[in-house]
Design a protein that fits this description.
heterodimer, A: alpha/beta, Ribosomal Protein S5, domain 2, 2 domains, five-stranded parallel beta sheet, four-stranded mixed beta sheet, 21 helices, 36% helix, elongated, disordered C terminus, B: alpha/beta, Rossmann fold, Arc Repressor Mutant, subunit A, nine-stranded mixed beta sheet, 12 strands, disordered N terminus
């Protein structure tokens, strides 16, 4: 007596189809689960048994073997509770095998037989190999995002059995989800003064350039950074689905009305571990903060306080836009294309960082800054000093430019980037950049001089040209990139490592 | 005990300075303790007394309670030191050792209230013999303004035949000597707090060698002495003693240069302070000195007047192109304190691109100096 039930399991941010095979035979009563189940998956035995009994169904005192195929893929979580129970019912003849043809089951069982929602419903439903899926009512909205799969919801095991036997119809899906309520993102109107810092934020949004804000405590670095997502355009359909899939896999509830349509904002604390940041912390290989921020902004406040090893783990994902986690149990890929924004103090004493302006001896200041490695610093195309706003600006009551106005310019700049075949200028490679943004004669000479002075690496040169192009896009300039744009790009790229007092001997 | 080579064969041939060098090599030995030891003995006798481990009542007066432990420690150390070898090492390193009273000892220090019993010197001892010497001191954490003033003053004084005395520290000290060296003229005098074979700070190694070549480097510490916190203020009294006038270019509210000022006032040396922006922490100490009645230094003439010399230095020839249009507005708005693009954007009515390119132009023309995103005006 054998039954096979369609289901899926989550690995990283992707679902993988799973077939739950249940075999019931004579022999000593036993219930074994094989096929790489993790601890919570093995515990399904007890939940399934209790759920069946509570629902008034018979528990077979026979030898039960459950195999989770393919056996090579690790299975994690309680999502396979329901398919195991259905398999048992079919194998014991409680339900006809034909009734589960082409139907997949996903859900966790309570001891009372009720069906509970599971994290990652979106990628899981996406992964099943058949056209009909049964999930818990609370997973309905997420599951229905996957078209054209038919989604049935049942509150408990008993109503499922009745529906499968055809004795009762499938329960009503319930009212459709309410329309999405627009989430209020913080507005740039609240930022007074700081025109250069605001401009840097605008350039970062337009070109997707990583941004480093350096300034004393109270300068408003976090405030500026928090307003960056509000300047980014809405996620496209595919992006929204991908972002929602990742966040669903991480167990986050999707917004009312369906997909995440706005770029995410993640701001992990500086005590975060490397696994928390890049992912792969548990058997299910949970996505890290950098993947949860995919398509949006990853903000690292107090960059100098992060463990240097943790920061360096970010370098490869930042370069490739994906994270590859390999563990003994298997490996997983996560998308990780983020706009990285970081803030740090110029020195440990919290002074302004101006030459002669703080109490820290030079070597103390450098030691503090060197916690951020050179290669990571090199990933920041925009680095700017942020000053504390002056009291006059705080009190005179005039508002800054609102985010909506800035977002319009950003959208226009992104539109120009799209005409070059990329979503943002940062993705342009060397040849595309040369076509999109030829340098004027003076600009070439200026860059040559900067290179000769040793202020710029080859990578830096490419980045400066890209930033200059983004500024041109923002200001609506056409034609070759002029020296003033190169100067501005260089001015927005300060080198905090340069020790004081050099160049006099 | 055998000597390492044939230059000095026996202890009997050693000069006074050799015994003093050996005594200074003892642990926790400073000028005051050495003075007490030499109260009624010759250096050679003092060495024998220390080595014997007998009680030293004169030292007890200076040291106090723990004299027993100290004499025991000295006796143990003295057993391991061979004055003949120590002397040979100094000779081999090209170090002159002059004791108080020797012919080569700087004359201006003879009348000092706390003269160094021994000075180690690298370079030309006669560099001190120039008619006038000015100490230029200040903070290690200086601004571009302070560095410029120190370099300029150092250069102008050296050119006027005035020797620049300084401590070879980072910041103002180094800048003053760099200026003096590039101008030529009077030989530079450096007073350091480490042994003459230990360059500190290492970033100033080139400057250190150039001062020893063109002028003289003094230290009160025997060879092999690393940087010790107490030696720096102690060194500052020698700087004050060697100088006829002390100039403080930039000083934070507290700092080593204020020790030099104190030492200079004890020795009746005039002190001049360079005024700075009231917002600059690096000028807080100097501005405070001015408030207390210190003479302000507003130009090289003020130093020359304080020295009793008449003179005037011509303004250096400025070859920079004068900025025009919006660049001039940006230059004016910048003031003389370090400022960021963000701060400048508040003060001038220019868009981000116009402002950044104007600032970059001013850097290229030599009106601004950029450091870690901070722009400072260059005089």
């Amino acid at each position: 007596m054998l039954a096979t039930v369609h289901a899926a399991t989550l690995l990283g941010v992707r679902g993988h189809p799973v077939r739950v095979e249940v075999h019931v035979d004579n022999g000593l009563p036993a219930f074994n689960v094989v096929g790489l189940p993790d601890a919570s998956c093995k515990e399904a035995r007890d939940r399934v048994r209790a759920a069946l009994v509570s629902s008034g169904l018979a528990w077979p005192s026979r030898r039960i073997t459950v195999n989770l195929a393919p056996t090579g893929v690790p299975k994690a979580g309680a999502v396979l509770d329901l398919p195991m129970a259905v398999g048992l019912l079919v194998a014991c003849g409680e339900v006809e095998p034909e009734s589960i043809d082409g139907v997949a089951f996903l859900g966790e069982l309570g001891l009372d037989g009720s069906l509970r929602p599971i994290p990652g419903a979106l990628p899981l439903v996406d992964a099943v190999e058949v056209g009909v899926v049964v999930v818990a009512p609370d997973n309905a909205v997420e599951a229905r995002l996957v078209t054209p799969t038919v989604v049935h919801t049942v509150p408990d095991l008993r109503s499922l059995v009745l529906a499968l036997r055809g004795e009762e119809p499938w329960p009503e899906a319930g009212s459709p989800a309410p329309e999405a309520v627009a989430f209020e993102e913080p507005d740039l109107v609240d930022v007074r003064g700081q025109r250069m810092a605001r401009f840097a934020v605008e350039v970062a949004a337009a070109g997707a350039h990583h941004l480093l804000l350096i300034g004393p405590p109270g300068a408003g670095k976090s405030m500026l950074a928090r307003r960056l997502p509000g300047l980014l355009p809405d996620l496209t359909g595919d992006q929204a689905l991908e972002v929602s899939r990742i966040r669903s896999a991480a167990g986050e509830a999707l917004p009312t009305g369906g997909l995440f349509r706005r770029p995410p904002w993640r701001s992990p604390h500086h005590g975060a571990s490397a696994a928390a940041l890049v992912g792969g912390g548990s058997a299910a290989m949970r996505p890290g903060e950098i993947s949860l921020a995919h398509g949006g902004v990853l903000f690292l406040d107090e960059l100098g306080e992060f463990a240097p090893k943790v920061l360096d783990a970010l370098r490869q994902p930042l370069e490739d836009g994906t994270v590859q986690i390999s563990r003994v149990a298997g490996s997983a890929d996560y998308p990780a294309r983020v706009l990285l924004v970081a803030a740090m103090n110029p020195c440990p004493c919290g002074g302004s960082g101006a030459p002669g302006g703080c109490r820290c001896p030079e070597h103390v200041r450098l030691k503090y800054l060197r916690r951020v490695s050179g290669p990571l610093l090199d990933r920041f195309d925009l680095r700017i000093d942020v000053d504390r706003p002056e009291p006059v600006e705080l009190l005179d009551g005039s508002d800054g430019e609102p985010s909506s106005a800035v977002a319009e310019r950003v959208a226009a700049a992104r539109e120009r980037a799209r005409s070059r075949g990329v979503t943002a200028n940062v993705e342009l490679d060397a040849s595309a950049l040369a076509t999109a943004a030829p340098l004027s004669h003076e600009a070439t000479r200026l860059l040559e001089a900067t290179l000769h002075a040793g202020r710029l690496s080859a990578r830096g040169l490419h980045r400066v040209r890209t930033v200059a192009l983004t500024i041109a896009d923002l200001t609506g300039r056409e034609g070759p990139v002029g020296p003033d744009l190169i100067d501005t790009a260089l001015g927005l790229r300060i080198d905090p490592f340069r020790p004081a007092g050099h160049g006099i001997h | 005990m055998a000597s390492t080579d044939g230059v000095v064969a026996a202890e009997a041939d050693l000069p006074q300075a050799a015994w003093l060098t050996a005594l200074l090599g003892l642990p926790a030995m400073g000028p005051r303790r050495l003075g007490a030891l030499l109260d009624n003995r010759s250096p050679a006798e003092a060495w024998t007394a220390v080595r014997s481990g007998r009680p030293l009542p004169e030292v007890a007066e200076v040291v106090g309670g723990r004299v027993g432990a100290l004499t025991a420690e000295w006796a143990k150390a003295a057993g391991d030191i061979d004055p003949v070898v120590v002397w040979a090492t100094n000779r081999a390193a090209g170090v002159d050792v002059v004791a108080l009273g020797d012919a080569g000892y700087p004359r201006c220090l003879l009348t000092d209230p706390e003269p160094a019993p021994v000075l180690f010197a690298l370079g030309r001892l006669d560099a001190v013999a120039v008619p006038s010497r000015v100490a230029i001191v200040g903070t290690r954490r200086c601004t571009r303004y302070g560095r410029d003033v120190a370099t300029e003053l150092g250069g102008a004084l050296a050119e006027a035949g005035v020797a620049v005395v300084s401590g070879l520290a980072l910041g103002i000290d180094g800048a003053a000597h760099a200026g003096a060296l590039s101008a030529g003229g009077a030989p530079p005098i450096g007073v350091v707090a480490t042994g003459l074979d230990i360059v500190y700070p290492t970033a100033n190694r080139r400057l250190w060698n150039r001062v020893a070549e063109a002028g003289v480097l003094f230290s009160e510490a025997p060879l092999g002495t690393g940087p010790r916190a107490w030696r720096f203020p102690s060194r500052n009294r020698i700087i004050a003693g060697l100088a006829d006038v002390v100039v403080v270019v930039e000083s934070h509210a507290s700092g080593g240069s204020l020790y030099t000022v104190e030492a200079a006032l004890d020795r009746d040396r005039p002190v001049l302070a360079v005024p700075g922006p009231i917002h600059s922490p690096a000028s807080r100490g100097t501005n405070h000195l001015l408030a207390e009645g210190c003479v302000p230094l507003c130009g090289i003439d003020d130093v020359l007047t304080a020295l009793g010399l008449v003179g005037s230095a011509p303004l250096p020839n400025d070859r920079r192109t004068y900025p025009d249009g919006s660049d001039l507005g940006v230059l004016d708005a910048a003031g003389w304190s370090p400022t960021t693009l963000d701060a400048l954007a508040r003060r001038v009515d220019l868009g981000p691109v116009d402002l950044a390119s104007s600032v970059a132009r001013l850097v290229r023309m030599g009106w601004f100096d950029e450091e870690r995103g901070f722009y400072q005006r260059v005089r």
